[in-house]
Every structure is written in structure tokens, then in C-alpha cells.
Amino acid sequence: MTGAIVIIPTYNEIENIEAIIKAVFSQSDAIHILVVDDNSPDLTALKVKELQQTFSNRLFLEVRQEKSGLGTAYIHGFKWCLDKEYQYIFEMDADFSHNPKDLQKLYDACAVEGADLSIGSRYITGVNVVNWPMGRVLMSYCASKYVRFITGMDINDTTAGFVCYKRKVLEAINLNTIKFIGYAFQIEMKFKAYLNKFKIIEVPVIFTDRTKGESKLSSGIISEAIFGVISMKLKSLFKKTT
């Protein structure tokens, strides 16, 4: 996975961070990791600093002053990566809901199959979610269908957070115009790529709910996704793509 880096945003992930870093590095000697930590009270960043002594020149850390949302953490990470020479930039959760073994599949979709954006999709081959209560599965599945209907995107898992971008996609999108900070951020980024006519491929993966730590999902995040999508679509009809 030459030229690849995985961005992992963290807030109180001390129970998962060492294991996920080692699991990602076990997939390839070439892959790098950038942890963007929101000044976690549980000292997640301190653990990353300790691991940097073992994984020098492969593990990087950016610590922000406070918890400011998933979207802004990824934007911070994107800009950091674009300042370097990375060609394949991944988004991935710290809690093992995304299987590190699937990184190769997402990479191959871009590097071999020609995708500009590859998505680890929970819904392209049915519903591949483990350990979620039925209510949450239905909410997530219906949310993706709703977003697909409103936006017109031919994507089954529009809210997926396990993705790989080719560098040129992030360069084409004006990251300063991204408005959403919660899970709607994932929708907005895909929509921008879609409007820019980049090739998007969905790769089937199995999503497994976290077993350690606490979920960051909230009612505010859900509301942002539901109501923000309509606003995003309407604005796209009258404004330039990026």
C-alpha cells in the first residue's frame, strides 16, 4: 500500500488505540497512520506518543485543543496529508468497527480498479452489520436510502465512514466549504465527489459495533444528517460544485 495513510480521529479511545494501530500496521509495511486526537481526557494522545517510539516515521499525531466534531477532525487530517505526498488517504474508526484487513480491498479498488473514491459498504450486498440493535440497523439503512433518494447518488451506503480517497479528490474539493461536523460530514464528502464526477466504487465489508469505549452518536448528529441533506441538495442546484 505504497503512498497510503490512514486517518484515525480519536476522543477517549485509550482502550482501543494501541490495538488498532498495531492491527493497521500489520496489514502493510508501507502504510502510515495519522491520529487526530481531540485532547482526550483519558490520555489517548499520550499512548500514541509512546507508540511513536516503536513506529517512528510511520505513526503521526495531531492533538487539537478540544472536541470539535468528526468532520473537522477529518478536515484537519486531510489538510495535513495533502501537505505531504500521500496518494491514498483513508478514513477509519479507532474502535474496530472497521476491519483493518479490509484496507487492502479499499486500496485495490482505487489503485487497481481505477476508483477515485472507494467506500467500505455495509449495504451493497444486503445488510452486513454485527452487534447493532435492530432499531439502529434500520435507522442507518433507511438513512442511506433517504440520502440516496434526496441527492440522486448511486451509492448504497451513503453514511459509511470507512473510505479511501485518491489525492486528487481531496484536492478538487474545497475543504473549507464543508459545513457538517457530525456523521453528515460523510454524506457531504461523498456528495462533493459525486458532483465532481469522480468514479466511486463500493466494496462490501462487515461492520462490527465497538466492544470497548462509548459510541459518539447523538440525536444532534442524527438531526444534522436528516435536515442537512435537503439543504445540501438545494444549495448544489444553485452553486458551483466545489
Question: Could you characterize what this model shows?
Answer:
With 242 residues, the chain is of the alpha/beta class. It has a single domain (4-236), classed as Spore Coat Polysaccharide Biosynthesis Protein SpsA, Chain A (Alpha-Beta Complex). The protein is built from 8 helices and 9 strands. The strands form 2 sheets. The chain has a 7-stranded mixed sheet with strand order 3-2-1-4-7-5-8, sandwiched between helices. A two-stranded parallel sheet has the order 6-9. Strand 1 (4-10), helix 1 and strand 2 form a beta-alpha-beta unit. Helix 5 packs parallel to helix 8 (219-236). The longest helix has 18 residues, at 134-151. The model has no long low-confidence stretch (mean pLDDT 89). Belongs to the glycosyltransferase 2 family. InterPro entries: DPM1-like (IPR039528), Glyco_trans_2-like (IPR001173), Nucleotide-diphossugar_trans (IPR029044). Keywords: Glycosyltransferase, Transferase. It holds the Pfam family Glycos_transf_2. Residues 6-172 form the Glycosyltransferase 2-like domain.
Keywords:
globular; Spore Coat Polysaccharide Biosynthesis Protein SpsA, Chain A; two-stranded parallel ribbon; 242 residues; 8 helices
Instruction: Kindly provide the radius of gyration, computed on alpha-carbon positions and rounded to a whole number of angstroms.
Output: 17 Å
Please list the strands of the largest sheet in the order they lie side by side: 3-2-1-4-7-5-8
What is the residue-mean pLDDT, rounded to a whole number? 89
**Structural shape:** globular
Q: What is the count of structural domains?
A: 1
The largest β sheet comes out as: 7 strands, mixed
CATH topology name, in short, is Spore Coat Polysaccharide Biosynthesis Protein SpsA, Chain A
Domain Glycosyltransferase 2-like: 6-172
GO cellular component, one term: membrane
Pfam families: Glycos_transf_2 (PF00535)
Family: Belongs to the glycosyltransferase 2 family.
